[in-house]
Amino acid sequence: MALTLSFESHPLNSVISGHSTQGDPSPYYAVYTTSSFTKQSTTFSAISPPSVIAKIEWNSFSPDGIIMDGRTRLLDEVVERGGALGRTIRKFTLPDGAKYKWKSYSSRSLVLLDMYGTTIARSHRAKSGSFGSVKRDMTLVIESPGLAFLDLIVLSFIVAEHATRQRRRQSNHVDHMNTMNNMNTMNNMNTINNINAINNMNTVSNMSMGF
């Protein structure tokens, strides 16, 4: 049976609750992030029984790190980066050699695939509830084969979703800068055209006056 997890807020600062067909949602995980000038620190914890699963250091000037299972490692060693231009956002390998990858999907969602292309988990973006739609938190649906390594799926999803949002912000920033540059170019061209028009008018005026 699949498990549905919901994020009450941003994936780096959220209580993550599990939903079943019976009863109310129950808290599964908590994610808490602090920020400083040079880095962010994210703590990913289980709620019952309470335990810290991993701590991630998002560094501005050095590679990101993770503390997990009592070991300090590079984040890319645990949850590897996908290709810069492809749809694979992050990927990881289990101790038995099984490989999984998070890929971007439609409507700002992510899907986790195994080596054979089988869907293990899928995210569904949040809805604000505007324009008559029903408000909905971001959810992550994990199929039954993924429940055996649930902690790693959720951890890797948090990393992949964070990377996706960073990509989106960078893309929006580039689009904004391109728009501003185009507007500046058009303004400069209009200014040059206006100057040329004034010069032409002055030339015609001088010629008519016999200068």
Description of the molecule:
- The protein is an alpha+beta fold and 211 residues long.
- The protein has two helices and 13 strands.
Put the structure in a nutshell.
The chain is α+β, with helices and mostly antiparallel strands.
Bin the helical content: 25-40%
Q: In CATH, what is the class?
A: Mainly Beta
Q: Give a short account of the largest sheet.
A: 13 strands, antiparallel
The CATH architecture: Beta Barrel
Protein name: DUF6593 domain-containing protein
Pfam families: DUF6593 (PF20236)
Transmembrane segments: 140-160
Domain DUF6593: 11-166
Task: Record the SSE blueprint.
Elements: E1 3-7, E2 14-19, E3 26-35, E4 39-46, E5 51-59, E6 65-68, E7 71-74, H1 75-78, E8 80-81, E9 88-93, E10 99-104, E11 110-113, E12 119-124, E13 138-142, H2 150-208
Antiparallel strand pairs: 1-2, 1-13, 2-3, 3-4, 4-5, 5-6, 6-7, 8-9, 9-10, 10-11, 11-12, 12-13
Organism: Fibroporia radiculosa
Protein name: DUF6593 domain-containing protein
Transmembrane segments: 140-160
